[in-house]
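# step 3/5: fold
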Amino acid sequence: MNLNPDFIDSMRPLLGERTADFISALEASPEVAVRLNPRKSTGRQLFEGEPVGWCDTGLYLHGRPVFTLMPQMHGGAFYVQDASSMIYKHIFRHIIKLTGSYGCPARVLDMCAAPGGKTTAIIDALDTDTVVVANEYVGKRASVLAENLAKWGHPHCIVTNSDTSAFADTSRFDIVAVDAPCSGEGMMRKDEEAVAQWSPSLVADCARLQRKILDDAVAALLPGGYLVYSTCTFNLAENEENVAYLVDNHGFEPVNIPVEPSWGIIPPLAGDNPCMRFMQHSTRGEGLFAAVLRKPEDDVLSAPGRLKHSQRFTASKEWAHVREWLNPATDWHIRGRKGEIYAFPEAVEEMERSLGREVRIISAGVPVGSTKGKDLVPAPELALSLDLRQEAFPDATLGEAGALSYLRREATALPGEFRKGYMTVSHDGLRLGFVKNIGSRANNLYPQQWRIRMQAK
């Protein structure tokens, strides 16, 4: 690894005699880890590995499987994620303990959410009724985010593709997470581009952008709410100094998140505000900085204002029967937009209506289907949703080869006789998607943009 000498010089004042250990750790191979979906079970153990100390569903693996060729990943059984980032589950569980609100729906905004690893960790930590708005500014990354959240299966999500300023018009969120765009120093061990692009000017540019995003987050947060700030970088400008900015300029109160000494998490390298630093020479994972702060209760500058009601989704009586496809325990609101039908839990509908028109919504609640003439073609996301009523569609169980063929969007052979019409296919107890059985063959309805291109060796 050809590290920039200026980067090494910038780390020496922070680490002192541990600098050599840190540089040596950057030359080592990165850890491989996965986080299991606690709400989706395959019925068998997928991996052997060592537990991640700060995440009860995280595992360090002893090697790197070909994840793309594991149908269980596409069914949402697990997420490939660096272990350091799994701290989000621990953080959010602690916030819920502080508020005493577990069992009460919370409203969470993940401002910089793609590709979705931290968002799914947030979902796993909170009550199932929590409404999560997952935002990503870059369009292509927002599409990946929507796909990953659909596979995780949580119905109380809204995926948006907007500048963070679109959320700053009025306070409406109990918790706001900002995993900010950064200079990427923490990813240097696994990303050559992070090594090549580093410069002092990049650090300065990122710090300025982060403060702009943080100002937007402050405005989006309800008084007394919690802000979770993180980066995957090491320098003070993007980390401790931004925490100090929130304390000194916005009156935020730092929150100490308890950690076990055995985890190797490093405390702040400057100042007294509590934070968590994951560094390769001390923790098992890539570089990460995280801090939690609480907004003042008496903040009147960003008190809730008039909400701008959206008309993007309209009531759809014609397709009300699709409630039969969904978990009957939820009071679903069926709404349509441009030929697509969505099912909203009430709390998600309220949030969708509260978002101003400047917020671009690309997915909300459970996508149910799209109209094709007088027919309603079930949406791929419906098959993956935790709220699909299992008896709503016939299901064909595929072996591994058949499942991979389906995920490549190849012709699908059904194992047995099934009635004509729409049905799901599954593997290892996980629904993967829909086909339309027309008798002599089944049309593969897996999304073209989701299909896997890798062939088994």
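# step 4/5: annotate
The first strand starts at residue 32 and ends at 36.
# step 5/5: archive (pending)
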